[in-house]
Amino acid sequence: MRSEKTLCALVLCLLCLTLCACASAPPPNERETGSGGQMLRYSSSQVSVDLTDAQRETLKQLRDRVYAQTPQGRALDAVAAALKQQGFAPITVDPDTGIVEAERHRVLVPKWEAILRGVLRARIGGLLAKPDHERVAAIVAVRPAEIAATSRRPAAGSLVRVRFDRTVWDSNGDARTETVLQREFYGDFFAVVDKAVEGKLPEAVARSAGDDKDKTSPPLP
Fold first, then answer.
1. SS3 category, 130
2. Long-range contacts: 177-182, Cβ < 8 Å, 24+?
3. Which of these, 145, 140, 141, 149, lies nearest to 158 by C-alpha position?
4. Which residues sit opposite 163 in a β-bridge?
5. DSSP 8-state assignment for residue 166
6. What's this model's pTM, rounded to 2 decimal places?
7. What is the pLDDT of residues 169-215, one digit of tens each?
8. CB of 158 within 8 A of CB of 144?
């Protein structure tokens, strides 16, 4: 009798676990790039969220801006200065490929709260995870763009294309990465680039961006 009850209990437990696993199945565009375990957590996990077709179309409407009469080199400097103004560091500029990369970190909870949660977790455990750190990565491509001019000769301009990816870590160390799709986020960036192109940023910011950006080594032969 006891063995039958034990067997029934095991079957019920397995059924419950299966139902929970099915209920918590992630969306198809989420990829677990690092697993910390399901039933038994032994490490942190990392999730990357891919764009859906609709989100790709949204990104296409946000990512580009053409700067007429602005050569590629000047546009690269303007992008670096804009990122510096927005708090990104370090900034890496590759003049040969026209790629600018940068990142910005932000703590989402006060230090005292993080310490308190750590003490409580060590003593009683069972605390729900809470976002506590954010990293925004920017990758910007600057390409020459031929713009039709009023004269019969085309004007040399630049196409600036940017993408921002945000990674958020929670208090358990789990990370989730997805592409930023907020229109104001891209609008704010291009507004600062506009000012940099027009020379309206503070001179100290523009000079600091030129000094701090990490230019890559010369191209391979």
1. coil
2. 177/46, 177/47, 177/48, 177/49, 178/48, 178/49, 179/49, 179/51, 179/55, 179/59, 180/136, 181/55, 181/58, 181/59, 181/62
3. 145
4. 139
5. E
6. 0.74
7. 988 889 999 999 999 999 999 999 999 999 998 865 655 665 555 55
8. yes
